[in-house]
Amino acid sequence: MKSRRKFLIDCGAVAGFSYMSIVRSGWSEISELSMKTGRMTLRFKPYELHLRHVFTVAEGSRSTTPVMLTELEYDNIIGFGEASMPPYLGENHETARSFLSKIDIAQFESPFLMEDILAYVDQLAPGNYSAKASVDIALHDLVGKLMNQPWYKIWGLNPKKTPYTSFTIGMDKPDVMKAKVREASPYRILKVKLGQGNDKAMIEAVRSETDKPICVDINQGWTDKNMALEMAYWLKDKGVVFIEQPMSKTSFDDTAWLTQNSPLPIIADEAFQTIGDFKKVQGVYSGVNIKLMKCGGLRSAFVMIKMARSLGMKVMIGCMTETSCAVTAAAQLSPLVDWADLDGNLLIDNDVFVGATIDDGKVILPNGPGIGIRQKNKEKSKN
Ligand code: MG
């Protein structure tokens, strides 16, 4: 196979075949020598998201997020995907490029072989969940477009049952927090990042501007379970509806004690990534925050929602800072969840897609097939 591939590359253009030298500027293509018709082509391109505000959580601050945009093409139909790689997850442009370059997508005759394709992608290397999610999302988009149906319809979900999304207010000085709250006026639920020692001042600043429900994300910032319980009661009095990741992801005993005694649900985020983590969080947390970039994409996320329900756990669907591509993909699942935190595309100023929108705080699913997005400034393609 290798010698045949080299021969064809050495020959230059070969009718009916494609290879890396003819793809669009900035894109890498993994389909060498696959037939253009009837076979899939995977392309990927690094991109950097610019955040509207410097984003501060208990772990640190940043103003950009690296993403990898992916495309899966089959019979001139393109499915779009995305890997978003905030630094704390350990992936970056280089790891994504390395992982995606391993994928021989052209060996599959049909994109409808989703189970085979995604099982193959998953076993190529451990981890790399964002890169895996970028393929999963692109494949779902492609297959939905081939079926000419959006995924919420394929799954049989009611688009009227989408939740209200929270809008995240990053840590800042009280005056800036108040300004951010005013900026968030279209949203019905606010998410406030806590865990840096000034939690009560942060909540008081928000409460001086609004009486909307608040959810709080501690990002593992609390270290003492008794203080955490005291805060849980204080936060409940302040109209907080749940607490996300209060203590270290490895503090299972203390978190289980807090969950048993807390007047508010305790949700696992950093402590919960893939389906295998259910055995760690069951009985320790009230619910889980499912994110496509943590679990490897829509196929896993769908199974995880069902699994959480079977265990009597609450379900939240979240996101990273992402374009409307990955956010809209997650939104397709949102009729199944208790809470949505799908504001990642709203926190950036260089989105390249249009997809799910927010109306009076509620997630509105697009009608288009697949994950339902379209490119903002459609590139001219040579392919
Ligand atoms: Mg979180």
Give a brief rundown of this model.
The protein has helices at 2-11, 93-101, 114-123, 129-147, 151-154, 174-183, 199-207, 225-237, 252-261, 278-281, 292-295, 298-310, 324-331, and strands at residues 28-30, 41-57, 60-74, 77-84, 166-169, 189-193, 214-217, 240-244, 266-268, 287-291, 314-318, 339-340, 353-354, 357-359, 362-364, 374-375.
List the main descriptive attributes of the protein structure presented here:
single chain; 383 residues; alpha/beta; Enolase-like, domain 1; 2 domains; eight-stranded parallel β-sheet; four-stranded antiparallel β-sheet; 16 strands; 32% helix; disordered C terminus
**CATH-defined superfamily of the largest domain:** Enolase-like C-terminal domain
Q: What is the H-and-E element order?
A: HEEEEHHHHEHEHEHEHEHEHHEHEEEEE
Distance between the termini: 24 Å
Radius of gyration: 22 Å
**Which ligands does the model contain, each kind named once?**
magnesium ion
What does this structure look like?
The protein is α/β, with parallel strands linked by helices and 383 residues long. The N terminus and C terminus are likely disordered. Helix 2 packs across helix 4 and helix 8 packs parallel to helix 9. It starts with a helix and ends in an 8-residue tail after the last strand. It has an 8-stranded parallel beta sheet. It has a 4-stranded antiparallel beta sheet with strand order 1-2-3-4. It has 2 domains: 147 residues, Enolase-like, domain 1; 230 residues, TIM Barrel (Alpha-Beta Barrel), CATH 3.20.20. The chain binds magnesium ion. Magnesium ion (MG) binds next to loops. The site of magnesium ion has 6 residues, from loops.
